[in-house]
Amino acid sequence: MICESCGAPVGADLDCFAALGLPRKLVLDPAALERAYHELSRRIHPDRFAQASARARDASLRSTALLTRSYRTLRDPVARGLYWLELRGEKLAENNKSVPSELAELVFEVQDELAELRGARGSEIQALRDRTVARRGELESAMNDLRERLARNFERWDNADHDAKGLVADLKAILSQIAYLRTLIRDVDRELENLKAA
Amino acid sequence: MSYSDKVLDHYNNPRNVGSFAKDDPNVGTGVVGAPECGDVMKLQLKINDSGVIEDARFKTFGCGSAIASSSYVTELVKGKHIDEAMAIKNTLIVKELNLPPVKIHCSVLAEDAIKAAISDWKKHKDGAEEPQAARAQEK
Lengths: 198, 139
What we know:
The structure holds 2 protein chains of 2 kinds. By secondary structure, chain A is mostly helical. Chain A folds into 2 domains: 16-75, DnaJ domain (Helix Hairpins), CATH 1.10.287; 101-197, Up-down Bundle (Methane Monooxygenase Hydroxylase, Chain G, domain 1), CATH 1.20.58. Chain A has helices spanning 16-19, 30-44, 54-75, 77-87, 101-119, 124-158, 164-197. Chain B has helices at residues 5-12, 64-77, 82-86, 90-97, 104-126, 132-138; strands at 27-34, 39-47, 53-61. In chain B, a hairpin with a 4-residue loop joins strand 1 and strand 2 (39-47). Chain B is globular, with a radius of gyration of 14 Å. Chain B starts with a helix and ends with a helix. Classes of the chains: A mainly alpha, B alpha+beta. At the A-B interface, helix 5 and helix 7 of A face strand 1, strand 2, helix 5 and helix 6 of B.
């Protein structure tokens, strides 16, 4: 990201890990990531190159954009996992259309409950609302379980000598379930918001 | 992004929303998902003994294009033999609904849902061992 000899920003085509000067590892220390980001952004900040050559100014802008994008990608474990698939030339949706039946059941059950809540009138609203709030808690804890599974998958990647194919499949399964759950939680929240607004 | 009139029509007045009883031996159920966006689609087909699709229901939780694609598909498959329905390509759905490139995956999802539902029906019929999920994976 920074030229060793002159201190100017370089290399706008680095991958996200290299851009932040971090090893290509999935388990990363959030504090170290934060530090690397702030330290580098300070050093390549466009303000510092305001008087420099057009080329240096351009490099500073492009490197800053890359740095910010890399930081945002790596900061969020889900985005980091998706990026990891991308680095390996894998596509999340490829051979991955089936929804685990338990999760599918849950989606349809909760969506039916939301439809009931939408249609509720008068005195029944409160009980249905409470049920949905309780659901929200269940879904949140299911999401936490998935995030823990994701963290364990990351550790297994970093401990190398595993069958990468199995790890890819596992990573794809976890990220997909997170996506389905996230959409469901979004719909639940939207419904609860509508209720508040009403 | 603006939706085509046909998408809006299917989205605002979706056809054949709902469910059939899952354990009805004439009903095939296909559940598929788009992991990029978290959309989930369920398509159920009521198929008679000669393999003709008599009725269809869907429930889709996702974007307007996913809902429109599944709604359109329920109309499209009614009266068709399963062999004809299996041959339906997502490109037909794209063309018919005028889906933009970023929404093509919604039509793929609908195509996959048809195939998954028919496979599920066949599974009840022949008592085949192969689970529906494994078939969906072959795609």
